[in-house]
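Anyone else keep sequences and structure tokens together like this?

Example one:
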Amino acid sequence: MKKIIYELNEIPKKLFDFYSSAFPNSAFAKLKKNANLYVTQTADVGILSPWVTWPTMHRGVSNLKHQISDLGQDLSYINKDYPNLYQILANSDYKVGVFGSLQSYPLPKNIDNYSFYVPDTFAYGIECQPKYLSKFQKFNLSMVKKNGRNVKSNIDLLNAFDLIINSRKLGISISTYGNLIKQISMELINRDRLVRRRASQAELSFDLFVKQLQIKKPDISFFFTNHLASSMHRYWPSIFPDDYSKNQFDKEWLVRWSQEIPHAIKIANYQIKYLMDFCEKNNYQLIIASSMGQAAVNNVKPAINQILITDIKKLLRFIDINENEWQPRMNMVPQIVIKPINNQILKKLEKLEKLLINGKKIGISKTATGDIKIELSIYNQNIISIEYDKKNIPTDLVGISLIDLQDAARAYAYHIPEGILIDYIPERIKVKKNWTSISVLDFAPSILKSFSLKKPSYMDGDINLFNYQ
């Protein structure tokens, strides 16, 4: 049976149960009644990150084997030893579609084996399959670069115009444009609603995915969205205040941001409902998965502001590193990632040891592929004070700023090993499983078995996840 994998990043059982109970007519509630429900356990060791846990799910081995630890890591050797699920299927003459799955850049060499292929939002380039989807990816990546810690109101007008004139071919729907117009109108009335632009990108992406799904009808397709995970990190206390100490959060803050997770869930619910209807009409199986989950972080204090590196070019120039000595890499705030062009840059970076920001040093580390991670994050400061070699210097010399946070939010919820996997086949006659515990390592080999492919010897998981006999 053909399959759609809806990768709903980091949603835990607690939130799924909460929403499906609160809205009995929702797609979530229908899934709870009619789908096989699993709680997944990640197999990864160390700090959990989605750019680690998704490759584990896709490759059927933990990070102890695949060694993927960073965004944008060179995966050429890893792909040979532990190819991901969609590589194996595409090489076995199955039609595969990929849209936004993490660690999916660059495009595979055998790209013609794929029905469609749009890499994740941390890609270094705009290449897509088919090529005209690059018009969307160019706009998508530009918006990711613009919106770091705070969401900005301006947009990339040139790329946005190119997107609009190609709307019909790309598949952007009238209803999505209606939602975007409504979003911008709401921002004019209430600036808090700017934060919902993170979800607007998920709406655009889904339209393009659906268009390709309708045209190509691949044997298996993957669609990734982070919009709900992003909202959970920031606004979890507004939905689950009892997860925290009494009076930890101001009541006004809780009310002010109480509709952000519901808004994000509403979008996910719409997309899932659409895919359920598509499955019923086209004899597809829908699998909703998260490679891990989220839960409340205890003893975290609300964040009013944050000291961040806001101009990496200026910071590096301060220590005599020219722009021709490094290349930018996509990153997630507060981290900044650069690729050194020569070894001299490593010696120059040692000068940052002399730089103190409110008494703290900038963190510097090397990734597995030789890129450099530079990180600074200090919350709730009254002023910003910068010293270099024990001498006070102006902040504008080093590109470091004290930023007021538009939603006073930080990671109030964070990653936990338990995620979910929901297996939905329309009009299923088989016995339904109710929150059965499994390993994420069971996913890849079970998918391969369902397409009559042998489990590779290096995969550790069970192969009977989708065995309904």
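And example two:
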Amino acid sequence: MEILDGAFWGFVGGFALILGAVIALVHEISRVAVARIMAFGAGVLISALTFELTEEAFQVGGTTPTAAGLLLGGVVFVAGDAMIGRRELRERAREGQPIAEELESNPRSIALGAILDGIPESFVIGASVTHGGGVALPVVVAVFLSNVPESLSASSGFRRLGWTPRRTIGLWVKVTIVAVVAATLGALVADTIKDNSFAFVNAFAAGAVLAMIADTMIPDAFREAGRWAGFITVAGFALSFLISTA
């Protein structure tokens, strides 16, 4: 029963990615609107990685696994993002597009961030069903609220790059399946997880998503939404914080 609960809550978090993609594909959303949604999602993520992931990691495992997880999560995202950037430049060259100018945005970076933080987040959600005596509802809500704008903004970028709706939805369906598997695995092995390992997984998710926010979400949001992006980011942070403390 706990395994099924873990899989279900992992699906709830992952389904938000599909929902965001569908919204982006059904409605032509302006760049400014996408930027504002992205700013809100960044605020939600900052709150979640601070109060639900990093803080819990520190309380459970202490300084060393928390710091190690944060740093490794950041390194993995930056390395993956660099590889994605080189791939996109090669694609532009093959299509005869100019590559000297700065890329307008990199939706693949957001997708990578969703994957790198989504897997450990889903694992934590599944493990909390068993390890914590009940699902970590604030984490599920924060993941859902942040995944919608993440996939919406990335899918809008994929649309501008010429991706078909089938290809875009297919990507997020695959990520959702991975999230369900990760949550199921978390519920299965929760009783055998040592505190240090649990802390490391939490911190890894926090590090990956923080790197993605700093590298992609906030710069893109400020470029298109201007000064309002700062307030909208704070609003997302405040909402997520209120949910986590309710």
